[in-house]
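The records we work with from here on pair a chain with its fold. Taken together, the tokens spell out the fold as the letters spell out the chain. To see the layout at work, look at the sequence and tokens printed below.
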Amino acid sequence: MLDYDPNSEEVQRDPYPTYKRLRDESPVHWVESYRGWALSRFADQWELTQDNERLTTRDGTTPMYLVANAIPALPNLNHMDPPAQPVLRTALAPFFLPRRVGRVEPRIREVVRACIDAFVEKGEACVVRDVGQVVASRLACMAIGFPDADSDYIVDVVKRFVSRDDAVGAMPPSAVAAFEEMQTYLASVSRERRTYRGEPENPIDVLLRARVEGEALSDEIMGQHLILLLVGATETFPKSFASAVLRLWQHPDQRRALAAAPRAIPTALRECLRYDMPTQFAMRRVKHDFELHGRRLRRGDNLFFLWPAGNRDEREFPEPDRFDVRRNPLRFLSFGNGIHRCLGAHFAQMEGKVLLEELLAAAPEYEVDEGGAQLGRSELFRGYARLPIRAGRRGE
């Protein structure tokens, strides 16, 4: 009998065999403990992420809202439906477009080079802690408007929020406490920024001046919006980068080809993001009954979009379990789809491009210490909490 539990040892260790069975045997699969349906095929997810008539995000998009009821689903971009959500997203969009990314890239490249130079000088580093998290937190401060001096604290509190203990369920007390701590911190950022009266300089300024359904955003609601941006900017990217570093090491011919022709790195990055997506699922709640693959989804049921399962669907990607940096998929689910597609997608792709360019330029023959690697545990995010690498000095 096919069973899917996001917290099971089998899924935590390697979810892809289970995801394949779901696609083949039960593409709309009932998960009793989550009171919802898991969707595993690419086409179903691509279509239904655009369905705002039968599905809603107002009650939340993660188990802590829809299953555990640990925290009330206060409004943020992920917890809003049309018509209010597109209006607010449109107001924020200019700060996440390619031209904005281009202005930040030189400063991010300085941060990246400092991290890579320190790695090469020392001869070893943890890709997640010493590179990915440092760069992601600094970019979050630049892109969103958090104080740069808070970047280390931001990494720490997000880490505590997403961490899971093997002995507890989906939302342990430590994670709830970290969430409340983030909320307090972000509300204070909002209060301090309210005195600014000039032209909007960052997304925080836009949110502070926004009107949602005619109302200004309180500091508490501001905190909810900023948590969404903060976790997205600092938690998923270091895992994506670590996976890319590992896959390129496991495929040395592809790695050397990229080192020799770095212009191909943006295309390669798309394959890295398809092949190893950190976010395991996002959720919706059913507003109106409908049928899919012979299953009746009823109002009030939860629904999972199993993004990585869709990204490995052979119905969309030939030989999906083969890693190939030349693949260049036209579409994939790593940034979601529809009105809730990741706002920071352009920033993430720039960040990954710069990191891979600088790493392959400085240490094209780096080595991964697989014995020292450690996967993090979370029902929502899958990726390395630790991935040690070694390299010689620049130019050796």
In short: The mean pLDDT is 90.
